[in-house]
Each structure stands twice: as structure tokens, then as C-alpha cells.
């Protein structure tokens, strides 16, 4: 019975993917028909002779204008009158400019356009009564869907797919608390939906923040959708398909709330009667609980150690990112192996009494940049969970985007032929 449902589900996803693709081709066809007439900087370029150039060493606005038959008094007038809009002294070497010249034999400059940056420009219209103004190029947004399999590094894979480096940075920020991007596995997969900016529909001008992402690390899928939970403060966070915040901070304790007693805090000046009241620093936090109580990972990460050693007894150590690791001692038994990727809240072992311990507890050790610190005193990144009242709204909101993500196919480079292939998953 379950199998039949599986097939139904697969068919439903397939058909919705096919529908999406149909929609895409339709949209493309419409764009092709509505191609705009050729206009540049708001001028009908058919009427002028166009010169594109960049400001060179020794160039000045006056020199360029004199070379293009604009008389000296007019140049002085522009320099004085339009100082606020166009300060002739502030033109910079290397900046592109455009001169629209008359089509007659004189080729006199009619319009001077200075490009302040890729989008903004300043126009000096030299015809009749001179005027100067600032303007912007038309920016259009094109949504892009990419999917890939990691061969060596994330940036290399995204680069191969022609994705801006800014998107790579954005993706690593979104998953900073979930996936350790310096320890990626070959075969990890990703899918991203984002928009690219284009000037005049053709010139690439950067990327917008990621709209949705999917990352599969060691076979564990993690979705990411941006969502604003606090409309007043405009807090934008990324959440997974179960409304869990990806910027998840560490759980307060490695045992579910209500099942433990905090028996000993981190204390560098601890004195113990047994040792003749000598200082025996305690760099862990002890949570007493009955033998067999599940111990959970306080944040997503990769298991770097799962072993038994001396006073620690049976323990597990997890690396969360370049900064933080956590360690869980005196287990009765571990549930995870070295190299395994675990998510926050996953059971990694059970409370026991292995190693040096007077009673059943888990000694929780928190490492920051290789040194042990007190997690209860650390300023850790805070992450607001989605309120229960917003959860249904959130899940409704992401449903179509999730379908769109699920429909993206992975592209991989075949090493020998360097051909982009499409993988069907
Ligand atoms: Zn301890």
C-alpha cells in the first residue's frame, strides 16, 4: 500500500514539474514578442552618431567638449550652473562616458553622458537651452534556478554553473549554522532559486538575495526559505521545511528540558573535598539524569569523535562550524559514529556512568576556537523560532516554492567532455 502511495506522490510531483516547465516556455515566448525598441539613456539613438569611451589621464570635461566643437562660453556656463548635478572637477579616470554627436559633417556634441556607476548616469544635454540631470538605467530581474553536485568545492561548482560569487557567499551564510562549508563532502547537492539583475535586459549587474535553497549534506536534506516573522523589526531569517530556524543557536542543554538537573556548572576555581580542597577546574557543565536518558546534539554538525578514553568514558564530540564544537561525556552508549552528520535535537547517545563519575550524568563541554568556555555565559547567536500562530501561514507560503525547488534538476560537468549534463533524480 505504501508503495502505491509513493508512486502516486512521484506522479504528482512529476506532473507539477511538467506544468511548471510549460509555464516557463510561455513566459519566454512573451518576452521575445515584447522586445523594446532601441533607446539608450532615454535618447532615440537612430538620430545621433554615438561615441563610447572612457575618461583617460589628462582628460577634462572642457577638453572633451572643445574637441567636439562645443564653444568655450557654453562649457564655462555648464561648469558653473550645474555644479550640483554634474561637478566637472569630479570626473574620474576610467569611468565610461558617451557622446551623442550630430549626424552631419560637423559632428558637434549634442549630449554628454557620464556613467557614475553601472546603473546611475548623468546627462548633460547641450542642445538649445542646456540642461543637466541624473538618471538610472532600466534594471530588469530574471529568476534563475540552479542545481548542482559538488565535485571539489561549493564555489567551484557554482562557478562552473556561471553563478555569481556573491550567491556562494549568500548560500554559505544561510547554512553557516547547519553545514560546515569547509568540510563539504564530494557528492553533496544543492539547488538555489535567486534573481539576477540586468541593465537594459542584457548587461549583468549582480544578484539578489537567495529566494529558496536546498542543500543535501551527507544525504541529509536541508531546505531554506527566507521569512520575516516580525513585521515591525523586519527580521528576515531562513527556515527549513518544518519551520525550524536555520540560524539555530545552541540548545540550552544536551538533554530535553525537564529530564535533567544541572548538577555542576563550569567553574575554573572548583575545590573538591575528595582532592583535599585543591583547585580542580571543571570546564564542563554537568547535567544529572537517570541512566539511559537520551543525549541530544545541541546544534547541527559533524561527529569528529565517538570513542572511549580514560576519565571521559564513552563520549561524542561534534564540530558545528569553524568556531564551535561540543563534547558529551560519560555515555552509557553512543548512537553515532565518527563522520556522521547530525542535526540539532538528534539523539547521539544515552546517559551513563563510564569514566570518572560519581553518578549518572552527562558532562557537556563547549569549545570555542579550540578552547573550552562556559556555554551558559557565552553570547551565542540568537534565533527566533516561528511562532505557532505563524507556522501554518509559513507552510502555506513555502509550499509552491518547495515544489519549484524539488523540480530543479542537477547539472554536472562530465570531466572528459566538459559537457553540461542534466541528471534526472
Ligand atoms: Zn563534568
Question: Could you list some keywords that capture this structure?
Answer:
425 residues; alpha+beta; 6-stranded antiparallel β-sheet; 25 strands; binds zinc ion
Short summary:
20% of the residues lie in helices and 35% in strands.
The residue-averaged pLDDT reads 84
Number of strands: 25
Q: For the CA atoms, what is the radius of gyration?
A: 31 Å
Largest sheet: number of strands, sense, barrel closure: 10 strands, antiparallel
- Which spans have pLDDT < 50 for at least 5 consecutive residues? 22-36, 416-425
Structural class of the secondary structure composition? alpha+beta
Termini separation: 23 Å
Quaternary organization? single chain
Number of helices: 6
Percent of sequence in beta strands:
25-35%
Amino acid at each position: 500500500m505504501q508503495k502505491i502511495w509513493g508512486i502516486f506522490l512521484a506522479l504528482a510531483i512529476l506532473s507539477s514539474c511538467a506544468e511548471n516547465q510549460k509555464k516557463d516556455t510561455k513566459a519566454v515566448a512573451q518576452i521575445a514578442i515584447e522586445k523594446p525598441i532601441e533607446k539608450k539613456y532615454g535618447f532615440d539613438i537612430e538620430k545621433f552618431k554615438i561615441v563610447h569611451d572612457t575618461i583617460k589621464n589628462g582628460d577634462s570635461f572642457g577638453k572633451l567638449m572643445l574637441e567636439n566643437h562645443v564653444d568655450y562660453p557654453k562649457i564655462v556656463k555648464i561648469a558653473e550652473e550645474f555644479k550640483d548635478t554634474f561637478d566637472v572637477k569630479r570626473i574620474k579616470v576610467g569611468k565610461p562616458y558617451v557622446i551623442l554627436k550630430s549626424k552631419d559633417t560637423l559632428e558637434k556634441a549634442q549630449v554628454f553622458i557620464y556613467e557614475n556607476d553601472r546603473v546611475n548616469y548623468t546627462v548633460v544635454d547641450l542642445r538649445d537651452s542646456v540642461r543637466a540631470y541624473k538618471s538610472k538605467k532600466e534594471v530588469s530581474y530574471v529568476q534563475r534556478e540552479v542545481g548542482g553536485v559538488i565535485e571539489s568545492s561549493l564555489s567551484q561548482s557554482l562557478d562552473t554553473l556561471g553563478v555569481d560569487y556573491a550567491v556562494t557567499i549568500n548560500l554559505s551564510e544561510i547554512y553557516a549554522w547547519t553545514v560546515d562549508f569547509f568540510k563539504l563532502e564530494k557528492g553533496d547537492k544543492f539547488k538555489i532559486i535567486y534573481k539576477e539583475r540586468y541593465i537594459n535586459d542584457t548587461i549583468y549587474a549582480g544578484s539578489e538575495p537567495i529566494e529558496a535553497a536546498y542543500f543535501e549534506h551527507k544525504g541529509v536534506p536541508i531546505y531554506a526559505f527566507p521569512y520575516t516573522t516580525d513585521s515591525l523589526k523586519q527580521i528576515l531569517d531562513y527556515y527549513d521545511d518544518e519551520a525550524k530556524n536555520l540560524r539555530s543557536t545552541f540548545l540550552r542543554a544536551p538533554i530535553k528540558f525537564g529530564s535533567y538537573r544541572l548538577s555542576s556548572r563550569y567553574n575554573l576555581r572548583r575545590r573538591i573535598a575528595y582532592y583535599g580542597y585543591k583547585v580542580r577546574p571543571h570546564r564542563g557543565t554537568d547535567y544529572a539524569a537517570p541512566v539511559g536518558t537520551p543525549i541530544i546534539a545541541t546544534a547541527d554538525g559533524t561527529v569528529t569523535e565517538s570513542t572511549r578514553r580514560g576519565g571521559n568514558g564513552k563520549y561524542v564530540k561534534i564540530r558545528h562550524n569553524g568556531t564551535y564544537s561540543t563534547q558529551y561525556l560519560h555515555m552509557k552508549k553512543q548512537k553515532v559514529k565518527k563522520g556522521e552528520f547530525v542535526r540539532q535535537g538528534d539523539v547521539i547517545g544515552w546517559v551513563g556512568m563510564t569514566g570518572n563519575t560519581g553518578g549518572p550524568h552527562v558532562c557537556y563541554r563547549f569549545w570555542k576556537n579550540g578552547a573550552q568556555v562556559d556555554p551558559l555565559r557565552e553570547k551565542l547567536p540568537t534565533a527566533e523560532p516561528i511562532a505557532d500562530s505563524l507556522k501554518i501561514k509559513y507552510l502555506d507560503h513555502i509550499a509552491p516554492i518547495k515544489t519549484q525547488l524539488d523540480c530543479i534538476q542537477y547539472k554536472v560537468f562530465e570531466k572528459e567532455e566538459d559537457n553540461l549534463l542534466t541528471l534526472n533524480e
